[in-house]
Amino acid sequence: MELVCLGLNHRSAPVEVRERFAIPPTRLGEKARELIDAPGIEESVVLSTCNRTEFYLAGESGEEAIRALRQMVDTGGNEHWYEKHRIDAARHLCQVAGGLDSMVLGETEIFGQVKDAYRRAHAAGATSGVLNRLFQRAFGVGKKVRTETTIQEGATSVAGSAVELAEKIFGRLKGCRVIVIGAGEMSRQTAQALVSRGASTVFVTNRSFERAEALADEMGGRAVRYDDWQATLAGVDVVISSTAAPHAVVKPFHVEAVRRVRKFRPLFLIDIAVPRDIDPEVGDIDEVYLYDIDTLEQLAAEARGRREQQIEQCAQIIDAELVKLNLPGT
Fold this sequence. Notes:
The chain has 330 residues and is an alpha/beta fold. The protein has helices at residues 15-18, 28-35, 62-72, 87-97, 109-123, 129-148, 158-170, 185-196, 209-219, 229-232, 252-256, 293-325; strands at residues 2-9, 43-49, 52-59, 82-85, 177-181, 201-206, 222-225, 238-241, 267-271, 288-292.
């Protein structure tokens, strides 16, 4: 029996490709069951989140299993898909479960998503000896990585740094309201990271209302016409701005106009545009916390440096656990 993984993630494919292959959580078990009806596939687990869709398969021949899968799933542009075989597939799953392959390094949400994907496949009768042992071992690895290293400390991306700063300002982000000005990829990543930590409402505004609607739909939020975003400022806690404007979009008078209505509550502004979208003088207002992309990148770079040693420690944990697994075909 050989183990293989076919997948795409946030590094290999843009969101418009990932969303084509996204599978709702309620269909993961059903999809895994469908796959084992194909010749060459004896076991299957399907993992699908906003940042990845991956198929873990076991069969007598890994190459045959991959061919069968590609016939069932129209993978189209093959340049977005990665294949991992035998021990590399097992190692990849352990990295995913440990949060080492995530957009925000060390994030915890993926651990629960992997467990749910396995639970659904197991309940559907799509797993047996190979994948049962592999996933149980991966869960153990995920726990060890988080308890024996400090991999979760210090965000290593702009989005992650923004979330950490927001949590320092507001404490828990549950119930926070966010407005995104500009509908680019960096805005999407930052808003998504805030939502994953509990932000409850996302407003999106863009000069192209259609793009605003598309991002708002993805976030479960609401699109706001570009001429109306200033009125929304009175009710939000976080502003993310990333437009292509050649001049400042958010100016001191925009914030001053709503301070009294806001009862002078803290306002966190994240400027990830180049050139900057938010006038630096906005940061002089008492209850305003303003960070630009250079500051966020610096925080992320410092965290990445601190984590290099931790990543090596995580790799050693994974390799030690994979030796114990003794997978067939590896």
